[in-house]
Amino acid sequence: MEKIFEGDIEFFPEKCPGGCSTCVEICPANAIYLPSTKPAGQMKGEVEATIAVNKDLCILCGACVNACPGEDIIRLHRTGVRITGKETDLFNKIKEKLFTPRTSRVKEDTPGEVQLKMMEKA
Ligand code: SF4
Ligand code: SF4
Q1: Is 50 touching ligand 2 by the criterion CB < 6 Å?
Q2: Which of 39, 57, 66, 89 has a CA-to-CA distance to 25 between 20 and 30 Å?
Q3: Domains and CATH numbers, the chain
Q4: Whose CA is closest to atom 8 on ligand 2?
Q5: What pLDDT does residue 91 have?
Q6: Is 64 in the pocket of ligand 1 (CB under 6 A)?
Q7: Beta bridge partner(s), residue 56
Q8: Nearest-CA neighbor of 92 among 107, 114, 112, 62?
């Protein structure tokens, strides 16, 4: 199945505060999950990851970036969108927002590159 957005999302869960699972709760695609906890005796000095992500399921909706309380823990960068029909004036107004890289709790976003992709008509 083709996704609406193209791009990438990065997580830095080593910076997550303990006990937070906001992104797990909010993700509409179930792309974020809590990894299984190893028994303490098997950790051998490792730090258990707070969350794990299946990027194949991620639809780049941005809900986790908006909800995450941590600083620069999630970074989202959309590079393309599949749309049907012509670009409308309204879409042209919002496309810079759609393609602006986002990171959790940091507001100084920089404009992103826009790459529109037209969806093939069935
Ligand atoms: S961008 Fe959306 S779909 Fe992707 S991990 Fe975040 S909440 Fe889930
Ligand atoms: S919402 Fe942010 S801080 Fe909380 S678990 Fe997810 S990535 Fe970590």
Answers
A1: yes
A2: 39
A3: 5-118 (3.30.70.20)
A4: 16
A5: 81
A6: yes
A7: none
A8: 114
Q: What pLDDT is recorded for position 78? A: 93
Ligand 1: residue whose CA is nearest its atom 8: 27
Q: In 14-36, which positions are buried (b, 16+ CB within 10 angstroms) versus exposed (e)?
A: eebeeebebbbeebeeebbeeee
Token reading at 43: 């950790």
pTM above 0.70, yes or no: yes
Instruction: For 43-54, write each residue's pLDDT tens digit.
Output: 666 656 689 999
pLDDT at 83: 77
Which amino acid, one-letter code, is at 16? C
For residues 75 and 64, is the Cβ–Cβ distance under 8 A?
no
User: Largest alpha-carbon pair distance within the chain?
Assistant: 60
Exposure of 44 in the CB half-sphere (CA atoms within 13 A): 1
